[in-house]
Design a protein that fits this description.
Alpha-D-Glucose-1,6-Bisphosphate, Chain A, domain 3, 3 domains, 22 strands, alpha/beta, 14 helices
């Protein structure tokens, strides 16, 4: 009987527990299916530091090579380093990682040549169908001439490309604490930061996919505590925290206080617009702060609002020829990086902005943090559609209130807004609220939660 991959093939990637939900034999079939769906003559494959990653990525490479595809194996890398390789080599790519998930998980992030995303509607459903069929009928017939397996290292070229996009040569000396969370930041940061006027205080740079110190998920405040304490103890200028595959970067200021990813989005947007002569489109999702479109317009750019999710951001980046895009989750996308996301490039922009003037980071980012936000609040509900309908009914016809349904339901006025979105995988509603001041934000947040949880 064909395998049921519904639990591991997600909307944007493959992810599940190893070996319970998938293993090297399935990884080999995924490699063959990826080769078949992309119809590529060559691909590039990389992996993170999880114990299962070398075996899974090697099996994937063998599966592709068996169908005659040449495979460039770049070994240990961050996800954005894999995107770099896909873009620079113009090859489809596969990155073996489960990002911030616990150690027993692993997964595959796939892209076409030039780091173009692969999701359910752009090849992933076809890949799943082939793998399911082949688990029933047997692996596809091998090519008469198998592909080659070649190992290469792209780390220095990746670092050089990022450094070419941000001028850090004349910044003032900075002390920065970097928490790699035992993830791939410990691999990339030393090379990317080499030779810059930075004193780097490393935290958890040892590559260890069992995550012995804390989860590699900086979105959870508990995982920022060590970084915050160390920044204060070292009197550092700032702190950076990377997730497990180092494609996301979170920032804390000199006091150890987290800087909102929306503020980072606004800051980087202003810099990218300046690089492009004060012209260009910037993409932001609908739960980033209102500060983002305001700053974009103030700096001559055109903001475009999208649904939440990297596939939507990347699609709009391509459609509008956008120069930059940012999300509340600390994913940052750059035209000069094949529209792919790279937290490392965003980090270099923050360092350049801070080092290019004399004020501390807290003062620098204040101009990009104009509102009070609730953060994302999850509520378990019996019927997502019913609760959203109840909110819509409560606010329909209220003076000055605008409703839109681009992604869930957004309720807004000139002074505040909130968005309620259903989870695709759990019986949850996700609430984000923002207002000009704390009392107003608290009021509208609590009003929305009362309806959601009624």
């Amino acid at each position: 009987m064909a395998a049921d991959l519904s639990q591991i093939v997600k909307a944007y990637d493959v992810r599940g527990v190893v070996p319970d939900q998938w293993d090297e034999s399935l990884a080999e079939l995924f490699g063959a299916a990826f080769a078949r769906v992309t119809d590529a003559e060559a691909i590039v494959v990389g992996h993170d530091m999880r114990p299962s990653s070398p075996g899974l990525s090697g099996a994937f490479a063998r599966g592709a090579a068996a169908l005659g595809v040449d495979v460039t194996q770049i070994g240990l890398c961050s996800t954005d380093q894999l995107y770099y390789a896909s873009g620079a080599l113009n090859l489809p790519g596969a990155m073996f990682t489960a990002s911030h998930n616990p150690a027993r998980y692993n997964g595959i992030k796939l892209c076409r040549a030039g780091a173009a995303p692969v999701g359910q509607d752009t090849g992933l459903a076809d890949i799943r169908a082939l793998v399911e069929r082949w688990t029933d009928t047997g692996a596809p017939e091998a090519a008469a001439v198998p592909g080659t397996l070649t190992r290469t290292d792209t780390l220095k070229d990746y670092a050089a490309h990022l450094r070419s996009l941000v001028d850090l040569t004349s910044i003032r000396p900075l002390k920065v604490v970097v928490d790699a969370g035992n993830g791939m930041g410990g691999h990339t940061v030393p090379t990317v930061f080499d030779g810059l006027p930075l004193t780097v205080v490393p935290l958890y740079f040892d590559l260890d996919g069992t995550f012995p110190n804390h989860e590699a998920n900086p979105l959870d405040p508990a995982n920022l505590v060590d970084l915050q304490q160390r920044v204060r103890a070292e009197s550092a200028d700032l702190g950076l925290a990377f997730d497990g595959d180092a494609d996301r970067c979170f920032v804390v200021d000199e006091h150890g206080d987290p800087v909102s990813p929306s503020a980072i989005t606004a800051l980087v947007a202003a810099r990218e617009l300046a690089r492009n002569g004060g012209r260009g489109t910037v993409i932001h999702n609908l739960i980033t702060s209102r500060t983002v479109p305001e700053v974009v317009e103030e700096n001559g750019g055109s903001p475009v609002r999208t649904r939440v999710g990297h596939s939507f951001i990347k699609a709009e980046m391509a459609r509008h020829g956008a120069i930059f895009g940012g999300e509340h989750s600390a994913h940052y996308y750059f035209k000069d990086f094949w529209n792919a996301d790279t937290g490392m490039l965003a980090a270099l922009h923050v360092l350049a902005a801070l080092g290019g003037q004399k004020t501390p980071l807290s003062s620098l980012v204040a101009a990009y943090d104009r509102y009070t936000g609730s953060g994302e609040i999850n509520s378990t509900v019996a019927d997502q559609a019913d609760r959203i309908a109840a909110i819509k009914a409560a606010y329909t016809g209220v003076p000055d209130v605008t409703l839109d349904e681009l992604d869930g339901l957004t309720v807004s006025t000139p002074d505040w807004w909130f968005n309620v979105r259903p989870s695709n995988t759990e019986p949850l509603l996700r609430l984000n609220a923002e207002a000009r001041d704390e009392p107003t934000m608290t009021k509208i947040r609590d009003e929305a939660l009362a309806i959601i949880r009624a």
